[in-house]
Design a protein that fits this description.
4-stranded mixed beta sheet
Length: 170
């Protein structure tokens, strides 16, 4: 029983954490200005699980900690076919649009900073992307995640043939 828990923890172990953006926010009140901070964070295990979050607090370190914890709790599985994504996809959120295409081995991650960090966290090694319209980091991140959610693949890689649901084979 203890071995199974250790395997599960090792499988979900976070190997990639990156703070994409830290913003200083100011709220003007009758008593003066109140400062707070927000941190946009991406985490991943390098095997297809990735999460992101926006942490907010009165101190930078607390905002980063909150963001990391939220991102770890909100991790989702992204289908990865070998070293790239299974097919072309377009993700949209708000005014942002991200076009993602699979690439041949050795191409690398051709992407902007935000989408690149998301791909690195997911363990994608070769991908072609293009960000269109708005370049707001939060919207780009959500657009890329919407695109990844549209990806179709039969089953997550950790399931064996015996565990696959009938009718969902490749």
């Amino acid at each position: 029983m203890a071995e199974q828990q250790n395997q599960t923890q090792a499988q979900d172990e976070i190997v990639y954490e990156k703070v994409l953006q830290i913003k200083r926010l100011t709220k003007v009140t009758t008593g003066g200005k109140k400062l707070s901070f927000s941190a946009l964070v991406v985490v991943g295990n390098g095997k297809g699980k990735v999460g992101y979050a926006l942490g907010k607090a009165n101190e930078v370190i607390d905002a980063i900690k909150k963001g990391l914890q939220k991102a770890k709790n909100n991790m989702v599985w992204i289908p990865v076919k070998g070293h790239t994504i299974p097919h072309d996809v377009i993700g949209e959120f708000g005014a942002s649009k991200v076009v993602m295409k699979p690439a041949s081995r050795g191409t690398g991650i051709i992407a902007g900073e935000v989408v690149r960090s998301l791909c690195e966290a997911a363990g994608i090694q070769d991908i072609l992307t293009k960000s269109l319209k708005s370049n707001t980091p939060v919207n780009l991140l959500k657009a890329a995640m919407a695109g990844f959610a549209k990806l179709k693949m039969s089953m997550p890689p950790q399931l064996s043939d015996d565990e696959k649901v009938e009718g969902k084979g490749e």
